[in-house]
Amino acid sequence: MENKLMIKLVVLTEGMFFLSLIMAFVYMAYNAGFEKHDVRALNITSTAIFTLLLAVSSLTLWLAERQFKSGNIKGLKFWLLITILLGGTFLFGQGREYLQLVHQHVTLSGSLFGTSFYTLTGFHGLHVFIGLVILSILLWLTLLGDFNNSSSTVIGTAAIYWHFVDIVWLFVFTIVYVIPLFIKF
Fold it and tell me: Whose CA is closest to 68, among 3, 152, 11?
């Protein structure tokens, strides 16, 4: 039980960190004024697809947890693998978007929007990467036969972190991609 308490404290502190990053993004990008070129360079359609995949990864991890609790280790392995593939695909999409934005001259140092955009989305991407490392270690340990006790809280603890990362992205996606659709420049 201590590990779940600790991860909840980690999530609480990380939540404050992301709240600060989101507030900085809103202040720097919205108050200082978006660069029209920078905003138009964002591909909401592509990012929405990758967002959906990340959201589905929360469902697949929930399914992995259920399989684990019912003693179905084969199901745990399957759904952990699917979750990792979905999370990896999300990171691939983020990397692809970064390359497209750089080709359109939206860079970290090019504008306040670029600085705040790459800082916010980059830190989120780092958290997804950390989550993927954790899930990959769990999958590896599962493949080695270490998770045959369905009373273990390790899978549930990792899931708290993963679900947090997914929820944070929904806020980031809304603030960075969706809200600008309704702002006149």
Answer: 152
